[in-house]
Specification:
The structure holds 2 protein chains of 2 kinds.
Chain A: E1 3-4, E2 7-14, E3 17-23, H1 29-36, E4 55-58, E5 61-64, E6 77-79, H2 92-99, H3 109-122, H4 128-135, H5 146-159
Parallel strand pairs in A: 2-6
Antiparallel strand pairs in A: 1-2, 2-3, 4-5, 4-6
Helix pairs in contact in A: 2-5, 3-5
Chain B: H1 24-28, E1 44-50, E2 56-62, H2 64-68, E3 72-77, E4 101-102, E5 108-114, H3 117-126, E6 128-133, H4 140-144, E7 161-169, H5 172-177, E8 181-189, E9 201-207, E10 210-215, H6 220-230, E11 238-242, H7 257-269, E12 273-276, H8 279-285, E13 292-300, E14 306-316, H9 324-333, E15 344-351, H10 367-384, H11 388-393, E16 401-402, E17 408-409, H12 414-425, E18 436-446, E19 461-468, E20 471-476, H13 485-497, E21 504-508, H14 525-552, E22 561-562, E23 565-566, E24 569-570, H15 571-582, E25 585-591, E26 612-623, E27 630-640, H16 647-666, E28 672-673, E29 676-677, E30 695-701, H17 723-735, E31 738-739, E32 741-742, H18 746-757, E33 763-764, E34 778-780
Parallel strand pairs in B: 1-12, 7-34, 8-32, 10-11, 14-15, 20-21, 27-30, 31-33
Antiparallel strand pairs in B: 1-5, 2-4, 2-6, 3-5, 7-15, 8-13, 9-10, 9-12, 13-14, 16-17, 18-26, 19-20, 19-25, 22-23, 23-24, 26-27, 28-29
Helix pairs in contact in B: 10-17, 13-14, 14-15, 16-17
Classes of the chains: A alpha+beta, B alpha+beta.
Chain lengths: ~160, ~800
């Protein structure tokens, strides 16, 4: 990473597109996504790594974007909710969330979907305990979680 | 995991179906712009400087260094916003920025607008404030004593007493005299908070003489009124837009400091100003569940009939009035909507303390007394040797009756919801063994407050439907806070117009574009806005049908409206025909509750509702006698929904209510130490994750209310209520000890077990209820049944 003044040059690939950005060295990935790239589908609930709302995939692994700094992601491929599908189609996980009523206010939904996508890509037929384990870092205040578990199971069956 | 049983079948096409929300796709794809996602050109960013003293006089504020900082556009203090406001007419006790004294840690004192948040935050640190600390009041007991220096507010009193109420319906003393068994109990329910996933956010612009505020608010209409007051501007010059909303649960129901601050800063700077609270600030903004201390005394006859009840409450209100006068009365209002109590006395007090202000959280003022009442009845049942379900059944209210405090009960599925959970859970045949328990409880909630927050005779909900070149738009001030109100309104209209809910474009939560709906509180939207939408949609249907009937030369009765067609024509063709005939196609609907649903005594405004929902729950759990740890196994919940408008959305609200009830029953608590919030973070403030949440089996009972839209009643709040006492009762069932305090945590269970082991009462909970000089009791004759059919 080069730097210009107090800013660092960051090469970042987001949803398959490369960006060259000038960022504060202490800017979080969350801030870079939302403020520099205006990808506001990634939400924030605490900015302290506590709620899971800001989950994105870094090289396919769900990470809390509020805790990730530029130096950690140079050369990585980032997937946000905007990159889960191309075009106007819904990803099977999104479709299952819709069909099962697994979203209400929708604020935890992008993070929840990305955590679910990561789980199902490595384990398409997870047990309930595996789903709980994979999503336990994502808080939701609306649904009571049950419909989310049902949606992930259903999406897994579709993806398998 | 969850089983939903719909009990009535009907020929309705879309109402009652299990359909996705109309706003699902935008939310699933990350396209929905919540307030903080919106970005206007040339925006400034606002940070609030908040007090770090729980109670102190503000002696001086020096903003000069902050103002001089590069990148700072404006700094404002209380001098710039001198007019007080508050959600209720009787609680106009908040300055957006306090310049005389601060009343809790987190009370805002100044606001900065700067080029970015970082600069605004740095500038806040340069503001010098000189404080003179005052004694901090941190408990109900302390607040009841005469203050050693000065009361927190000077408008109430005596001392730190905010509000009191004392009412009696029927002859309570006589009722106790006629009782064969009398029992007294004391309970405490700790405060907790909403914890919406979205932090509050607001953006304001001031262009010409017009102010616009986008905010994550549940109640744009009340914010609109508060802005008009604070800025002394005509309401017509102010627009409030409730942006897509990341969760409310009551926590975004008040007008807030950050909303006032961005408006003022937009006026001062001429630029858009945005303020998004940090998670820590959300804990200070609070307005959540009041901590309530409760004392209850009930007399029953030999066969378990309630003869008289005396209920006392003391609420810790925190630093400001907020909804407090209503919250206090709600702790005494709805005991009577589940049980027939022939003589009832209620005394309540709300005190001010130097903590974040309390207000309405899901169930507003009723989860606390519901917890106390249900446990109290369990104890009575145990003492008189009656099954707890049977004791309740002997006292259940009947449909189409009046309560002793004059509340009008219409449709009432209390027996049915009881049957569902009792049968499904096998509660009556449960095998008793140490460490395993089941608990049962019931509850009731309002379908909207019968009176608005400020006195007026206007409709509570208004709706306009416009059909333009075949497209249908529905305009209503109701605010979708995630509960699905846009989906409900679209479904109600779609049913009438023969369309699909996603065919209706809903414009909601906007004070300029949509007619008034009072807001998303008191579970009022489905019933009230739903009725307004139904009226407007019926009228539109009639216009279309008339136009088609005229063309087809048939009677309107012969024109079917279904599946995208009006008679032989497509909806679009019918709409064009009607537009040719009458011009603009616009219809209206409005709803106001019937005037006769409550009593006419002082304080009778709290409690009346056009209908009440009923819920019953059974909780099944294992409680470890050696560690006090609870493992929830399953919850059965049945809810009298009247009629389900969208079963998927209703199921979601039921499960969400059960979740929130369980989470606050077992872990959520807003705690303080030396005036400081002990856990203002999502990690330290414990709430349920996927791991803690047990299986839930849901039953919907449809009683088809005569006044609800298609017979619908509320679901947003009711299903939370029985869950908490059901858990407490199950803990007793498992370990034979009572935890008379929420949250029910392992340490409290262990203390109760310890007390029992030492030969004392196997109980953890408050031992004393303070001596309170309640006002003299207002005696109200019970409802006179001869003057009205019910």
């Amino acid at each position: 990473m080069g730097s210009i003044g107090s800013r660092e040059v960051l090469e970042l690939s987001v949803n398959g597109r490369s960006h060259e950005l000038l960022v504060k060295p202490y800017a979080t990935l969350l801030e870079i996504l939302r403020e520099d790239l205006r990808l506001t589908g990634t939400k924030h609930g605490c900015e302290a790594g506590e709620c899971g709302t800001c989950v994105v995939l870094i090289d396919g692994v769900p990470q809390l974007s509020c805790l990730v700094l530029p130096g950690q992601i140079e050369g990585s491929e980032i997937t946000t909710i905007e990159g889960v599908t191309n075009g106007s189609e819904l990803h099977p996980v999104q479709q299952a969330f819709m069909d099962h009523g697994a979203l209400q206010c929708g604020y935890c939904t992008p993070g929840m979907i990305l955590s679910s996508v990561a789980l199902l890509e490595s384990n398409p037929v997870p047990s309930r305990e595996e789903i709980k384990e994979a999503l336990s870092g994502n808080l939701c205040r609306c649904t009571g979680y049950a419909s989310i578990i049902e949606a992930v199971e259903d999406a897994g069956r579709f993806m398998a | 995991m969850t089983n939903v049983v719909n009990e009535t079948s009907s020929d309705l096409r879309v109402v009652g179906k299990s359909l996705p929300r109309v706003d699902a796709v935008g939310k699933l794809k990350g396209l929905t712009a919540y307030t903080d996602d919106m970005e206007l050109p040339n925006t400034l960013y606002c940070k609030l400087l908040r007090s770090h003293h729980p109670h102190a006089r503000v002696l001086s504020i020096d903003t000069s260094a902050a103002l001089a900082m590069e990148g700072v556009a404006a700094v404002i203090t209380g001098d710039d916003l001198p007019i007080k406001y508050g959600i209720m007419p009787t609680s106009q006790d908040e300055h957006a920025l306090e310049n005389e004294k601060v009343r809790f840690v987190g009370d805002p004192v100044a606001a900065v607008a700067a080029v970015d948040e970082e600069t605004a935050l740095a500038a806040c640190k340069l503001i010098k404030i000189e404080y003179e600390p005052l004694e901090a009041i941190e408990s109900i007991e302390h607040a009841l004593l005469p203050p050693s220096d000065e009361p927190i507010h000077d408008y109430a009193g005596p001392g730190n007493i905010h509000r009191m109420g004392a009412l009696e319906f029927g002859d309570v003393d006589q009722g106790f005299e006629n009782s064969s068994h009398i029992r007294e109990d004391i309970f405490f329910y700790e405060g907790n908070t909403h914890l919406p996933m979205e932090q509050h956010s607001a953006i304001a612009t001031f262009v010409g003489d017009k102010l616009t505020l986008w905010s994550s608010t549940q109640n744009p209409h009340y914010v609109h009124r508060a802005l008009a007051r604070v800025f002394d501007m005509p309401m017509g010059h102010i627009r409030v837009v409730a942006a897509p909303h990341g969760g409310g649960f009551g926590g975004k129901s008040d007008p807030f400091s950050h909303e006032m601050a961005v408006c003022k800063l937009a006026m001062v700077t001429g630029r858009p100003v945005k303020c998004t609270l940090t998670r820590e600030e959300v804990f200070y903004v609070h307005r959540g569940r009041h901590p309530v201390l409760m004392w209850v005394r009930t007399g029953v006859s030999e066969d378990g009939k309630i003869m008289a009840m005396h209920f006392r409450t003391a609420l810790d209100g925190g630093a400001y009035g907020s909804y407090g006068p209503a919250s206090m009365l709600y702790t005494g209002a709805l005991q009577t909507t589940t049980y027939n109590i022939p003589a009832y006395r209620f005394e309540g007090v709300r005190v001010f303390t130097n903590k974040a202000p309390c207000g309405p959280k899901r169930g507003h003022g009723t989860p606390q007394p519901r917890f106390a009442l249900e446990l109290h009845l369990d104890k009575i049942a145990q003492e008189i040797g009656l099954d707890p379900v049977e004791l309740r059944r002997r006292n259940y209210v009947k449909p189409y009756t009046r309560t002793v405090n004059h509340l009008r009960i219409t449709s009432c599925g209390i027996e049915e919801v009881t049957d569902r959970v009792i049968e499904a859970s096998g509660f009556l045949n449960r095998k008793r063994r140490l460490g395993h328990g089941m608990g049962f409880a019931i509850s009731s909630y309002m379908c909207g407050a019968g009176l608005p927050i400020y006195w007026n005779k206007l409709p509570h909900s208004e709706c306009i439907i416009q059909v333009n070149r075949g497209g249908v738009s529905l305009y209503c001030g109701a605010t979708d806070i995630g509960q699905g109100s846009d989906t409900v309104l679209a479904t109600v209209a779609a049913e009438q117009l023969g369309l699909w809910p996603t065919d209706i474009r809903v414009v909601s939560g906007d004070t300029d574009l949509a007619p008034v709906d009072l807001g998303s509180y008191s579970s009022r939207v489905t019933f009230m806005a739903g009725n307004a939408a139904l009226q407007a949609a019926r009228e539109m249907r009639d216009i279309l049908v008339d136009a088609v009937a005229e063309k087809m030369e048939c009677s309107p009765q012969e024109v079917m409206v279904a599946d995208g067609k009006v008679g032989e024509l497509t909806f679009e063709e019918a709409a064009t025909l009607a537009q040719e005939k009458v011009g603009v196609l616009s219809t209206r609907g409005s709803y106001a509750p019937p005037p006769n649903i409550g009593g006419r005594y002082k304080a009778s405004g709290v409690g009346p509702s056009p209908a009440y929902s009923y819920s019953a729950a059974v909780a099944d759990l294992d409680a470890d006698p050696y560690s006090g740890e609870i493992q929830l196994n399953k919850v059965w919940i049945a809810h009298d929904i009247g009629r389900s408008i969208n079963s998927l959305a209703v199921k979601g609200q039921v499960e969400g209510g059960v979740y929130m009830g369980l989470s606050e029953a077992m872990m959520e608590a807003q705690l303080y130490r030396h005036g400081l919030h002990k856990q203002p973070s999502m990690l330290d403030y414990k709430s349920f994750t996927f791991f803690e949440m047990p299986e839930v089996e849901t039953f919907l009972v449809e009683t088809v209310d005569l006044e609800g839209p298609y017979g619908a009643k509320e679901v947003g709040q009711g299903p939370l209520l029985p869950v908490i006492p059901a858990v407490a009762s199950a803990v007793h069932d498992a370990l034979d000890v009572w935890v008379d305090e929420v949250p029910i945590t392992p340490d409290k269970i262990m203390r109760a077990l310890d007390a029992k082991a030492k030969g004392r009462e196997g109980r953890y909970g408050p031992k004393n209820f303070p001596k309170i000089s309640y006002p003299s009791i207002v005696k109200v004759p019970p409802f006179d049944a001869s003057s009205s059919p019910f």
